[in-house]
Amino acid sequence: MGANRAVRWHVPARTKAPKAISAGAARCRRKFLRVFPGGFRDETYLEWEREYKWATHERWEEALGHEEFRRLLQREDFAEIAARAVRVEQRSRHSMIFSFEKMALRDAVKSSEGARTFAEGLYEFLHGADDVAHRFERWVEVVAELPRRQTRVLTWPLVTVFGFIAQPDRHMFLKPMVTRAAARAYGVNLEYSSRPSWKTYEQLLALARTVRGDLRDLRPRDMIDIQSFLWVQGSDEYAS
Fold first, then answer.
1. Domain extents for the chain?
2. pTM assigned to the model
3. pLDDT band at 211 (very low <50, low <70, confident <90, very high)
4. Which of 25, 74, 105, 174 is found 20 to 30 A from 203 (Cα to Cα)?
5. Distance CA 18, CA 26 (A)
6. What confidence tens digit (pLDDT) does each residue in 97-129 have?
7. Residues 6 or more apart from 152 whose CB is under 8 A from it?
8. What is the model's pLDDT at position 93?
9. Residue of 185, 186, 177 whose CA lies nearest to 157
10. What is the pLDDT of residues 5-21, one digit of tens each?
11. At what angle do helices 23-35 and 198-214 cross, to 10 degrees?
12. What pLDDT, on a 0 to 100 scale, did the predictor assign at position 18?
């Protein structure tokens, strides 16, 4: 995800799809296995799609794992939390957010109040006690409240990137054009609005669960594998 590259098409793997999947799911599976015949263990798949995302998650664990995040919050070191979060994403080999979103986020957390709002809101989203729906809705409100200079902060990639990086076992990343194209290819109507909402995110998580079930014989490990599978369906990098 990110860099343009020449796709190396392969002979499809002979792995049989589960009989109960939809026609759209079967087409998406075939496309994925044409590109990566070894599925989620394919060496090219690991190089192109998984390894850099997992490396970003590992950097997050080092910089802002649960205990370290809580320690910094207790010290009220909000600027350090914001700086670490921004730095982890920006060091990814292929950034998941656009340059204007990076700029908007950096501007939003420059002030002490912006850094505090971001740090406390992100901790609550990742580690709060409420159910995921309330935590997501509150996180959207937090991002909407961040100071804005020239470009908007409240975008789907910015709202979903940190959950995906920090907790790829439970959160998904939504890049609007690619994700919507992938959902259509799979035969799912993702009720999308440009303003992030729990309704759309819940549907995305439901799609991820469906995809994971349909691909259970290929043994996807986490949301990184599911997101990468969907990326192959919707991105121009993998246009057939």
1. 23-238
2. 0.90
3. very high
4. 105
5. 9
6. 888 999 999 999 999 999 999 999 999 999 999
7. 104
8. 79
9. 177
10. 544 444 444 456 666 89
11. 70
12. 63
* Spatial CB neighbours of 157, under 8 Å, sequence gap ≥ 6: 96, 97, 98, 101, 173, 174, 175, 176
| 19 and 222 Cβ atoms separated by less than 8 Å | no
Burial class (CB in 10 A: 0-12, 13-18, 19+), 84: buried
φ, ψ of residue 147 in degrees (nearest 5) = -55, 140
Pairwise CA distance, residues 218 & 216, whole Å: 5
| Residue count of the chain | 240
Q: At what angle do helices 112-127 and 132-145 cross, to 10 degrees?
A: 170
CA 138/CA 227 separation, integer angstroms: 24
Q: pLDDT tens for residues 181-196?
A: 999 999 999 999 999 9
Structure-token pair, residue 25: 């799911």
